[in-house]
Amino acid sequence: MDDILYAHLVEAVYESDDLFNGQNLPSYGNGNIGISIDSEGIAANSAPIVQPNMLAYNGVVHALGEVMPFDFPDPEGTCGAWKINMFTFDDPSEGWGGSTINVFSDGTLLASETLTTGTSDSFSVPVNNGSRIDVIYSSAGSFWSGNHGFEVEDQFGAIIYSSFAYPPVSIYGLNPCEESPTCGLIEVTFTDGSQDGWYGGNMAVYSESGLEANIFFNPDFNGDGFADYESFQSRPVMVTVDEGEIDFVVTPAVSFPNQTGYIVQNTSGEIVIDETNTTSTPPSTLNFEICESTASDIGETAFATKALSLFPNPVRTTAQIRGLATNETWEAFVYGANGKVVHQQRGVGNEAVNVGTLPAGLYNLQLRVTGKSYEAIRFVKE
Question: Which of 8, 159, 370, 380 matches a 20 to 30 Å C-alpha distance to 123?
Answer without folding.
Answer: 8
